[in-house]
């Protein structure tokens, strides 16, 4: 189910690769408007970076910016994507070459219509 991007521009602080943004509780967006581990795009002018929700404290959401926060300011905008990290899961990925973010770099056909699965999840307990 595709969700439209939710955009916020109330960035409170940037410390290292972590930014904190105020996300008001908006009942019209539903109870899961922003969730732990969801992805977001942080944008400042032409500069964009993928980020992930790593902490939520009432209306303050902390995001880790994957490419680093250098060059971003408190005037940047945050677009929440409404889903955690995903990857394509189909026969069409066999033999392909991908970037670290999962996008193909081999000049082959697009994979945007192929099924996706969430990646990540609970860590493995080695004691079990």
The main β sheet shows up as: 7 strands, antiparallel
* Silhouette: globular
* Model regions low in confidence, pLDDT < 50 over at least 5 residues: none
Separation of the first and last Cα atoms: 35 Å
Share of β-strand residues: 35-45%
Helix content: under 10%
Number of strands: 9
Mean pLDDT: 83
Strand arrangement across the biggest beta sheet: 1-7-4-5-6-3-2
What is the alpha-carbon Rg in Å?
16 Å
How does the helix and strand content classify structurally?
mainly beta
Written as H for each helix and E for each strand, in order along the chain, the element string is EEEEEEEEE
How many helices?
Answer: 0
Describe the structure.
The chain is built from no helices and nine strands. The protein has 128 residues and is mainly β. It starts with 5 loop residues before the first strand and ends in a 10-residue tail after the last strand.
């Amino acid at each position: 189910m595709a969700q439209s991007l939710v955009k916020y521009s109330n960035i409170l602080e940037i410390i290292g690769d972590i930014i904190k943004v105020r996300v008001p509780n908006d009942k019209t967006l539903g109870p899961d408007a922003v969730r732990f581990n969801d992805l977001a795009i942080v944008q400042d002018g032409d500069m964009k970076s993928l980020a992930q929700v790593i902490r939520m404290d009432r209306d303050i959401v902390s995001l880790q910016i994957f490419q680093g926060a250098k060059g971003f300011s408190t005037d940047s905008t945050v677009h929440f994507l409404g889903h955690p990290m995903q990857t394509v899961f189909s026969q069409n990925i066999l033999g392909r070459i991908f970037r670290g973010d999962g996008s193909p770099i081999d000049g082959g056909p697009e994979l945007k219509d192929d099924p996706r699965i969430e990646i990540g999840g609970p860590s493995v307990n080695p004691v079990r």
